[in-house]
UniProtKB/TrEMBL annotation:
Residues 83-176, 182-272, 277-317 form the Fibronectin type-III domain. It comes from the Eukaryota. The keyword Disulfide bond applies. This is (California timema) hypothetical protein. Keywords: Disulfide bond. InterPro entries: FN3_dom (IPR003961), FN3_sf (IPR036116), Ig-like_fold (IPR013783). It comes from Timema californicum. One of its GO terms (biological process) is cell-cell adhesion. The keyword Disulfide bond applies.
């Protein structure tokens, strides 16, 4: 329903600071013959490049009239802001970057806030930081990893919603000295339908004794991040979901703090017998000596693997 549209924000805080994420929900009405437009796949870039971010409005329908030629997408709404300009990195540190920019050339109303999106090179998962009224065109992006390349883009919001995205800004954080490098040889193997054994080796450059490791993991496409701490070079994660992929990465700690993270890997728990029965079972008599039995697979959440066959049992009444 259109009344469900709006801006939704979530803020997490601890003694070290806070982080926030935001999403704008727009409810669209589409016709039966409309086609949904999706953005093109991302391409790889080099440090120092300036790229144009393709950020269309949320799933826009292509009109069937002759106003738009086949294959063309309708232009963005003239009511939302144009793209912010002059995106630049004011401060680049080991674990944070301060980004500033100039307002859109065509704000088309009062700018309410900006959303600064960033992702690490090699990842498609974007995080977002929103600005406040006191420093509308500048934001500090914390929680980054030393010696990594990040992609930044900015969108302005007015009362009509999010505007066009700025060009991408590519920034590499500074390397941090006297801290461990990333652990090597990270690997994961399923040991049961609900557990993964994750193993790794010491960093090639530890800059002192490694005191502990922090293993991070996320389920599938979830945005909820979990971690465990261990002094060993392996850890068995338990109580996981059956036949499910998990993203995993490890950070080593020495006396000076956390070092560089490993690259993410993906591990999958083992399959198991289905926990739900087949659905919508029907029986139809086709003759005096035969019947046809039909059914649908169990719900996806209860398949616990790839269904390879069915066994039909029957009993004469």
């Amino acid at each position: 329903m259109t009344l469900d549209a709006g801006m939704f924000q979530c803020v997490g805080s601890n003694p070290a600071g806070n982080i926030q994420a935001a999403a704008r929900l727009m409810v669209l009405e589409t016709g039966a013959n409309d086609t949904l437009v999706h953005p093109p796949p991302a391409s790889r870039s080099s440090v120092g490049d300036t790229l144009t971010a393709f950020v269309p409005p949320p799933l826009t329908a292509i009109p069937t009239s002759t106003d738009v030629a086949p294959g063309e997408v309708s232009p963005p709404s003239s009511k939302v802001p144009s793209a912010p300009q002059g995106l630049k990195a004011v401060i680049v540190s080991t674990r944070f970057v301060t980004i500033s920019w100039n307002p859109p050339a065509e704000p088309r109303g009062d700018i309410l806030t900006y959303s600064v999106f960033h992702r690490q090179e090699g990842s498609q998962r974007e995080r977002v930081v929103n600005t406040t009224g006191s420093r509308l065109e500048e934001v500090n992006v914390p929680g980054l990893t030393p010696d990594r390349t990040y992609y930044f883009r900015v969108q302005a919001y007015n009362t009509e919603g999010p505007g066009e995205s700025s060009d991408l800004l590519i920034v590499s954080t500074q390397a941090e000295v006297h801290l461990p490098g990333p652990p090597v040889g990270l690997r994961a193997v399923g040991t049961s339908p609900t557990s993964l054994l994750v193993q790794w080796e010491e960093p090639e450059l530890s800059n002192g004794p490694v005191q502990r490791y922090k293993l991070y993991f996320m389920e599938g496409d979830s945005a909820e991040e979990h971690h465990v701490v261990t002094a060993e070079r392996q850890y068995e994660l338990k109580d996981l979901s059956k036949f499910t992929e998990y993203s995993l990465w490890v950070v080593a700690f020495n006396q000076n703090g956390p070092g560089s993270s490993t690259e993410e890997i993906v591990g999958r728990t083992l399959s198991d017998v289905p926990s739900e029965p087949p659905q919508n079972v029907t029986l139809e008599a086709t003759s005096s000596t035969s019947v046809v039995v039909r059914w649908e697979p169990p719900p996806k959440s209860g398949q616990n693997g790839v269904i390879t066959g069915y066994k039909l049992r029957y009993l004469q009444a």
